[in-house]
């Protein structure tokens, strides 16, 4: 193990944007307890001792023209997944869900649409109303709507949007194995529109799609070389949904998820690292290890977008066990 891996990433070192793939891969491959010690030290130096509960709602489900191999909402595999194309939800119905999420203890409300890109018009105006309504409840508002143009990002900013989620999903090298209907640069362009509009960036990826450790390192390199770093980094484990091209992927080893979280924490010390899809496959102990490794948010509520999520009572109990407070 090269010494530089550790010395260049000491807990209090300045935030870096020049990580190499080799350095990050070396971190991913550290002996587990050494990695955990390191991630924990960075976490303690840069993060408050809390966990943010974020609730997620699919405001427009199914029928998406993109061909993302992991996604149950793509029209390309709709016949196999049986996920039907629905219309955009009504603003009032969305705000009702947001109120319920707040009452249950969520601080952030995330809304996802199965769109390739935002189109100007009545539907986009309705999404802006949703954002305004969520902000009026005193919650953070995040949306994920596919590709955005600059003027659309600005409109969302004016509606009060806190964060825009747009994941890079995997390494630039592996991307074409998973998605063919857009490329990595399209993703990076939307991210720069979001940043330029003054909206915080929520950007992460998925492990368990057949990628190598080097690909995972390369994804983390791309994320950590964004300047500034994303404020929010969701780490998803593939939910291998029946009927999607990736349905036969074997479940990720929970320890790989712990490692990915730990290295996201080390390379992006100030980001909220979110333990995202795939959490329902984890034992209580594996989830605690992810929190120890530096995750400080998870999706809270019965459903993700189309797949089930963990039980909310069990989640509150998990925080109690860890002695962690939910950030309000
Ligand atoms: N259509 C928009 C887009 O792709 O940016 C927003 C919705 S999309 C469902 C949001 C993110 O969910 C994807 O970028 C991907 O990272 C994650 N996701 C979707 N299906 C998943 C699955 N089966 N397992 C893990 N993560 C998944
Ligand atoms: C993210 O990184 N993960 C969330 C959220 N951002 C939008 C979505 C997970 C979706 C999992 C599959 C489903 O429920 O459809
Ligand atoms: Fe699914 Fe988003 Fe890809 Fe559409 S763009 S198929 S909703 S991940």
What is the second-level CATH architecture?
Answer: Alpha-Beta Barrel
Rg, Å, rounded: 19 Å
- Could you spell the SSE succession in H and E letters? HHHEHHEHEHEHHEEHEHEHEHE
Query: What is the percent of helical residues?
Result: 40-55%
CATH-assigned homologous superfamily: Aldolase class I
Low-confidence stretches: 1-8
What's the count of strands?
Answer: 10
Query: What is the highest CATH level, the class?
Result: Alpha Beta
Q: What is the CA–CA distance across the termini? A: 41 Å
Mean pLDDT across the residues is: 95
Q: Output the CATH topology.
A: TIM Barrel
What would your notes on this structure say?
The protein is 41% helix and 14% strand. The protein is an alpha/beta fold and 328 residues long. The protein has one domain: Aldolase class I (TIM Barrel, Alpha-Beta Barrel), CATH 3.20.20. Strands 1, 2, 3, 4, 5, 6, 7, 8, 9 and 10 form a ten-stranded parallel beta sheet that branches. Strand 8 (272-275), helix 12 and strand 9 (297-299) form a beta-alpha-beta unit. The longest helix is centred in the first third of the chain and has 15 residues, at 32-46. The protein is globular and about 50 Å long. Residues 1-8 have low confidence and may be disordered. Residues 64, 70-71, 73, 112, 114-115, 144, 146, 166-167, 169, 206, 236, 238-239, 241, 277, 305 line the site of S-adenosylmethionine (SAM).
